[in-house]
Structures are given as C-alpha cells and as structure tokens.
C-alpha cells in the first residue's frame, strides 16, 4: 500500500506542479464561462432601444402594435401611410431605427412585410417583430371565427416573412454565410497552425533540423514550411468551395423536385379526405413557392459570394501566417508534445473567442464588440469573415481594408519575433522551455 | 584551408567560446576534442553558419566564410535524424538538392552510393522501418553526396557496429585522399590516434591545446619504457635502485614485462646499462602517452589551476 501511495504521490505532484496545470485550471473556467459571456456581451453591446415605425397599408394592425412594446423594441406609428419616398426621407432625418411597411394584403398573405433600416436592427428585433406580427394575425384569425374556411385559415397561420428593403439578401443567407465562413476559417487556422507546430517539432526532435540549416538559413526553412502548409490550406479551401458549389447545385435540383412531389402528396391527401378542394392554379402556385424561395436564396448567395471569395483567402493567409508564426515558435521552443500545452493555450484563447463572437455575431453585426474584434488582428480573420455578409461595403469598405492592413502588419511583426525564438529554440535540446527562457532567446544575437 | 580567428560566442550571459583560434590545413583530418559542454558543437555550428559568432572571423580558402560556402561544406551532426515518415530515396533526393545538386545529378550520385553500401533495396522504404545503423548510413551518404571540400563530422562513429564503423572510417580516409579536408569532433581517442593529423583540445570554452598528433604525443612523452625480459624480478628491481621508478609489472617465473619511468637525469642508455648485467632483455619499447591520457591530464591540469 505504501508503494502505491508513493506512486500516487509522484503521479499527482508531478502534474499539479506543472505550469500548464495551473494555467489550465485558471483559464479553463474562464474559457467555459466565455462561451456564454460572449453572446451576452454581443447583446449588451447593442442594448439600446430600437424605435420601429410601423406604416400599415392593411389598416388593421397599427393600433395594436403598441401593446407589444418592450424595453428593447418600441413600435411607433408616426408616419402616415403615404408615399414611400416621403417616408424614407423623413426616416433618414429621424432617430428611428427602422420602418416596417405592412402590405395591404397582410392578413391574407403575410409575405411582403418590408423593413427599411439604417443600421441593421439585429436578429433579436427582427425575431420579435415577426413574432408580434404573427401574434396579431392569429388573434385576428380567431376573431374571425367561423367566417373563414380552412384554406384561408391555413394561409392566415403561415409564418410571417420579412424582406429588407435596402438589403437584397435574406438574413438567413447572411447568417449562414457568416457563420460558415467563420467556422471554416477557425478550422483551417487551427488545423494548419498546429501542423506548422508539429512540423517544426518533428524536425527538432528528429534532429534533422541541424542538417537542413547547414544548407539553408533557418528562416528559409521556417518560411518554406509555413508557405508550403499555407498552400495546402488554400488547396483544401479551393477543393472545399468547389465541392460545396457542386453540392449546392445538385441539392437545388433535388430540393425543387422534392418540394413538387411533396406538394402533390399534400394535395392528394387533402382531396381524398374531401375536406378541401383546390384549383389547378392554386396547386401550381403552391408548387412554385419553394422553388422561388430557393432561387432567391441562391441569388442571395451569389450576390455575397464575390466578397466572401475575395476576402476569405486574404484573411486566411493573414490569420494563418499570424497564428502559424506563434505555433512555429512554440514548436521550436519545446522538446515534446506534452510541453506544448502551456504555450498553446494562450494562443488558442483568441481563436476560440473569435469563433464564439463569429457564431453569435448576427445578433448585432454592427455593435461595438463585433466592430472592434473584426479589426483586432488576433480575432479579425474569423470575426470579419462572419461580419462581412452584414456589411454595406459601399460605406464600410474601409473597415475591411483596415482589418487587412492591421492583420498583415501584425503578422510581419509576430513573424519576426517568432523567427528569433525559432532560430534559437530549434538548436536547444534537452532544456525545458519556459516563458522566461523564451524572453531570453529574444535578446540573443544570432 | 580554414582559419578560425579569435571567436567568441555568448548565449545570454553564458560564454560558449572564448577567443578560440584554430587553423586547419588542406586535406588534413583535424580532430576537435574536449569534454561535454566544452564548446565543440558551438564551434562546429559557427563553421557551418548555423549560428554566427559574436566576434572573430572565419576564412575559408582566404575568403570570409559566407552563405555560398554551404554548398562545399558537408555536416554530419552528432544528433542524427531524418524525417521518419518519408521514403529513404525521396528524402535523400531532397537533402541532396538542398545542397545545390540538380535532380538528375543527385539521383545519379545517390544510386552510386546506395550501390556501394549495398542498400539500393531501401530506396522506397520509409526511414522509420530502418534500424538505427541503417539510418546512420543514409545520413552519412547525404552528408557527402555533394562531394564537399570541407567535411565536418560530429562523432561520426557513434551508433555504428564495428563493421560499419570500419566501412565509414575507410570512406572518410578515401574522401581525404580525394581532396577533402575533414574536421571531426569525437570522444573516441582511438579513432583520433588512428586518423587525425592535427587536433585541438577545447575545454570550458577555450582552446587549451593544438598541434600535430605526433608533436603533441612527443611533447607529453613521460620517459616511460616497457621492457620485456627473462630473469629474476628481484634482480631486476635491485638493478633499478636509484633514478628509476617501476610503474607496473606483469609475468611469472622467469618471463616478465615491466614499465619503467626514468627520472629526469636518466636516459634509456643509462637504464639499459643498469639492467643488462642483471637480466636478459628481450625487447624495449618507449611508451608514448595515448591521446586519452593527454586529454585527461590536460583537463585535470586546467581544473586544478582553476
């Protein structure tokens, strides 16, 4: 038993005394906490009251909207249902956040609700607006009671759909593109950054590094490795995008076909039960809805594709080079995989923060947190990509440009630092790397 | 060929080399000796331009050492290694091309070396499938593949079995014959005596000894003689009553071998004159100090001085 105690003691104390254990113990909870703090921060950074003007051409709902006011959203009906241009002009000179145009046919078909805004009001406001409008429609339907038939009721219970007047693209498409691009960027940076670290470590632990740097400069080896791996990443990006395009195109035809079949099945079911009869016109109309919707989505994706395809490689290269320089320095500093933990964690934190912000950013794409983190180089490759679909590049182009300039300037600086650590680190065998020794290496002349 | 002048190298506050100067003539095998941590590897890395000195100069063929010289230097580091997952041939091609060979020439030379070492069948095998000795052979080949004028070998025989060590030794001698100048750093004193023309001993960052092996050995000769004789051991020791020290002896009955140290005022002639009446001498050999003895003695002297 005493021998087991000895073993337990050794196993316990050797691990507990490690700096990585202490760092992990402190940063771990912070990291976990940040997964729910960041979404809250994004919301908080946008916590201002949204004043939404309701222009009601249906003349049914405007008097009810005020019952749905909250701290966050206040509905107003200051604008008469006049001409659009006059309303738009008045709105531009007001403090209001958005104007919602309710179409005359809103109670029968809830499709053409149009939102005109200055800054994007955020997903919360839009969700609340949709919910409130839906609620009014349902109550209206109930009030109508037995005066309506089932087809009309079915139409009245359809979900409210909103369009953005000054944005050609559906919010869902923006969210999808932003989140997908952010996640892809996160995966690629992590994946290839870690590959750089492992590559450097392999050369160091194998001792082959000494043979190679007797033929080439250490920095040639470092840059060669980083660029080689970056090209692998870009190749993978190109394959991914190509496959995705093929998949989307084939899914589109498949989906349209399915929706036609599904509509047929529904109609057949309704007809055989004898409860509802539909005219041919109505059937065709129903069939074409999802196809139109999909075509619209595809068009929206197509509209945002150029900016995404242009910016993704630029931010990937910048972000990858920035992080791979850190990873290369870590690989050069340590002797074994286990030693990497204490250094990898602080490098990973900004990336994780970036992805957390990116996946929650649609709540408030133009809030302070989203703005600053899309400029700060440690998070900008991920956050800016997620923000990009929400941006009006005709006025916000400078933000993207500034983010790129800051990112590239920072990576030039960090690569220089990393190169200093690398040049010394790769030749240091058998020494336990610590932050203190790394700082010392930065002062060495090479 | 290679002239190292007043080299200093610091790592932070630690001085790895202090005012070290050596000269290595062309076609010479130059041994770099010293205890662990003395600064040998730092010096070799500087000559290889892996790191730069803080002060001092190095000239090769009278020209300051520059990056372009990398292609005429071959370096076999003490800590060997290859990419484990790469195929042998592919890796050898990569390393040969890094040394400036074009693809076709690299392949031609590699096939010749692989054939010479009878390892052609390894070409498509992964490095991790080879034994340590096999990997060492590959490493040696890629070190000499570009026919370097200056070959730097750090512990070239470590990891080799005696047969392969002999093979490598012969290759080194052959390379010297073909015009290469060779520096090798080692702890293996036997190989130093067998192969080196000149040596330098480095200790605690300073060069404490340099010269031709024969000259150094002569300088450190201790007037020791090994005498084989027939006769009586008591008569032998009685004859050496004064002026000589019996260091050790072995043998039995009437046949003995003894090592004698002559005091400063006694010569070998005096020793023989004293012994001849007492015993029948069969052979006399002067015992020169081994490089190992000189190494230990010199390091000990320095340690005592400090």
Keywords for this entry:
heterodimer, A: 446 residues, mainly alpha, abc type-2 transporter like fold, 2 domains, five-stranded mixed sheet, 15 helices, 5 strands, 70% helix, elongated, B: 306 residues, alpha/beta, Rossmann fold, Alpha-Beta Plaits, six-stranded mixed sheet, four-stranded antiparallel sheet, 10 helices, 30% strand
User: What's the number of extended β-strand segments of chain B?
Assistant: 14
Mean pLDDT of chain B: 88
Share in helix of chain A? 55-70%
* Rg of chain A, Å, rounded: 29 Å
* Domain count of chain A: 2
Arithmetic mean of pLDDT of chain A? 77
Largest interface: A-B, 23 and 29 residues
What's the number of domains of chain B? 2
Q: H/E element string of chain B?
A: EEEHEEEHHHEHEHEEHEHEEHEH
- Strand/helix succession of chain A: HHEHEHEEHHEHHHHHHHHH
Structural class of chain B: alpha/beta
Distance between the termini of chain B: 34 Å
Largest sheet of chain A: 5 strands, mixed
Uncertain residue segments of chain A: 273-289
Total count of strands of chain A: 5
Identify the overall geometry of chain A.
Answer: elongated
User: What is the helix tally of chain B?
Assistant: 10
Helical residue percent band of chain B: 25-40%
Please provide a written account of the structure.
The complex is a heterodimer of chains A (446) and B (306). Chain A has 446 residues and is mainly alpha-helical. Helices cover 70% and strands 5% of the residues of chain A. Chain A has two domains: 50-166, abc type-2 transporter like fold; 172-443, no CATH class. Chain A is built from 15 helices and five strands. In chain A, helix 7 packs parallel to helix 10 and helix 10 runs parallel beside helix 14. The two termini of chain A are 53 Å apart. In chain A, 33% of the residues are buried. The model of chain A is unreliable at 273-289 (pLDDT under 50). Chain B is an alpha/beta fold. Chain B has two domains: 2-218, Rossmann fold (3-Layer(aba) Sandwich), CATH 3.40.50.300; 222-287, ACT-like. Chain A, domain 2 (Alpha-Beta Plaits). In chain B, helix 2 crosses helix 3 (103-116) and helix 2 (88-98) runs parallel beside helix 4. Chain B contains ten helices and 14 strands. Classes of the chains: A mainly alpha (446), B alpha/beta (306).
